[in-house]
Design goal:
Shape: elongated
Order of helices and strands: EEHEEHHEHEEEEHEHHHEE
Number of helices: 8
Mean pLDDT: 78
C-alpha cells in the first residue's frame, strides 16, 4: 500500500506533546508528510485510511491525527525552516544525515513544567529551571565507517540559565580518562562533569523549594551514617564522574559508580 508511491523523504511533526504525572509521553496531535512519486497510488492510499485523515497536495502526502492537525499543516503562513532556533539547532549537524530531529524549546518547557525530576531507567535526573533557557535541540543520525553516529546540538539562552547550570557548562570535560578505569567487557559507560558542579542542580531539584525540610532530611542522614554529603562529600568531588554497567558470570549486570 505504501511502497508503490512513497518517495525518498518522510517527516513526522508533533504539533502537541504532553508528559503525564506518571511520566508517559503522549503525542495527541501529529502530522506525517511524505514525498510522493506516484500520485495515483498515493490517492488510492488516502481512500484506505481509517481513524486518521489524509490529503495529497502536489507531490506531498499529508496524514494527520485529526482534521485540525491537518489544517494547521496545510494553512500555516510560515515554515519551521524560518525559525531561528531551528536553524541554530540544525546548523552544525553533519550533512548527509540518515535521520534528523528537532525539539523546540517551547516543547521542552511544556513537557517539564510540572516536574523537577525526570525518572529515566530508575535514575532521577534534575530538570534545571527555568527551562526557557533551552531554545531548541537538534539531532542527527549519520552512517559512518564504524556504524551509526548520533550528534546533538543544544541551543540555549545564557541569560535565562541558572548560575549552577552556567558553571556546569564552563566545566565540561573535553577529554575523559574514565575509559581507562573500566574493563574491556564493560556493557555501558556513562561519564560526565565533576559532581561538585552538578550537585547544586541535583540538590535544587531534590529540595523542591523546601530548603528547611531538605536540610532536616540531611541532618537525619548524617545521624545515621556520620556524614552530611551536602557539605562533607559532594563539594569535594571535583574530578570526573562515571558510571559503568558490568557483566557477571551469573548473567546479572551490576552497576559500578566512580566519583573522584
Amino acid at each position: 500500500d505504501i511502497e508503490p508511491w512513497i518517495g525518498r523523504n518522510v517527516a513526522l511533526a508533533a504539533l502537541d506533546v504532553s508528559l503525564t504525572t506518571d511520566g508517559t509521553l503522549t503525542f495527541p496531535s501529529w502530522v506525517i508528510i511524505a514525498q510522493v512519486r506516484d500520485r495515483g497510488a498515493a490517492d488510492a492510499f488516502v481512500t484506505q485510511l481509517e481513524n486518521v485523515v489524509g490529503v495529497r497536495e502536489g507531490n506531498l502526502l499529508l496524514v494527520g491525527s485529526d482534521t485540525v492537525a491537518l489544517a494547521v499543516a496545510q494553512n500555516s503562513a510560515s515554515s519551521l525552516r524560518e525559525s531561528p532556533d531551528f536553524v541554530s539547532a540544525s546548523f552544525e549537524l553533519p550533512t548527509g544525515r540518515l535521520l534528523s530531529g528537532y525539539l523546540s524549546g517551547t516543547a521542552v518547557s511544556k513537557l517539564t513544567e510540572n516536574f523537577t525530576l525526570l525518572n529515566v531507567a530508575g535514575f532521577a535526573l534534575p530538570i534545571d529551571g527555568p527551562t526557557e533557557s533551552y531554545r531548541g535541540i537538534g539531532l542527527g543520525l549519520t552512517v559512518v565507517e564504524q556504524g551509526l553516529q548520533l550528534n546533538t546540538n543544544l541551543v540555549y539562552d545564557l541569560d535565562q540559565m541558572s548560575e549552577a547550570a552556567q558553571r556546569s557548562l564552563e566545566t565540561m570535560l573535553p577529554n575523559s580518562n574514565a575509559a581507562t578505569l573500566y574493563p574491556p567487557e564493560t556493557i555501558l559507560l556513562l561519564r560526565g562533569q565533576p559532581f561538585n558542579e552538578t550537585w547544586p542542580l541535583v540538590r535544587a531539584a531534590l529540595a523542591g523549594g523546601d530548603e528547611v525540610a531538605f536540610a532536616e532530611s540531611l541532618t537525619l542522614l548524617e545521624e545515621q551514617i556520620g556524614l552530611n554529603p551536602d557539605t562533607g562529600l559532594f563539594p569535594l568531588l571535583d574530578g570526573e564522574a562515571s558510571m559503568g554497567l558490568l557483566p557477571t558470570e551469573s548473567g546479572a549486570a551490576p552497576v559500578s559508580f566512580m566519583l573522584s
